[in-house]
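Box 4.2: Ligand-aware structure prediction
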Amino acid sequence: MKWKNKVVIVTGAAQGIGKALALAYGEQEARVVVADLHIEACEVVADAICRDGGQAVSVATDVRQIQAIENLIQQATEAFGTVDIMINNAGIGRWKSPYELSMEDWSDVIATNLTGTFLCAREAAKVMKAHKHGGSIINIASTRAIMSEPNSEAYAAAKGGIVALTHALAVSLGSDSIRVNCISPGWIETGDYEALRVVDHEQHPAGRVGRVSDIVKACFYLTDADNDFVTGTNLVVDGGMTRRMIYEE
Ligand code: NAI
């Protein structure tokens, strides 16, 4: 098991992609820190990992608050001794016309998606550096960093910021043996996959909508110590949608 006893923190792990990541690293016998605003749902995920013989703790965390992030890192090191892998997955969107998007909406999305990602990466990196074992940081961006539907300004700006933040951190932290990469998911269905329509699948060059397991596999690739030549990259996992040119007929 490549991740056996590695300490992995996943933010936004109460549901969706983050939950799938926490469970997947748990199955790999990693020691998992399940972090989210919603502590009860975190506890359900952590309990599921422990019931299957794994190791996990849950920590109530608001990634908009530096004190909460410092507490998360402290809880992780108290429970498991260090931090090896930090997965910055927590994210929100506010889908409103730019004419109507309030300062509060804008600030909340930037604080959660971008500032939270930076602060979690930095606080985890401090431990990786201090313990001299290096580590791996994954930031979950989006294909909306590079293409848009209307009314997605704050989300697109935050996700574009994550892609830029990722290469900046990779260059700054490389000398501490810390690799920093991001993943840009396309459409990853976290709800009822069976309810998707044929057209939903067929518009993708890959012939299907994405599953949470597609992001799990991308994270495994990027956090595999064998892949230590990969840093600063943005791994697009979108079934080819950002490569598809569409004109009306
Ligand atoms: P989701 O909405 O199902 O889960 C997000 C989680 O983040 C929730 O559990 C929520 O409580 C948590 N969260 C929100 N604000 C937080 C805060 N301030 N502090 C801590 N936790 C907080 O989202 P989903 O679909 O699982 O997406 C996960 C990540 O992947 C997000 O960053 C999202 O932007 C990104 N993404 C998802 C895509 C998709 O198709 N599902 C596509 C592209 C990117």
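In the box above, the bound molecule is NAI. The beta strands are 7-11, 31-36, 55-60, 85-88, 135-140, 178-185, 234-237.
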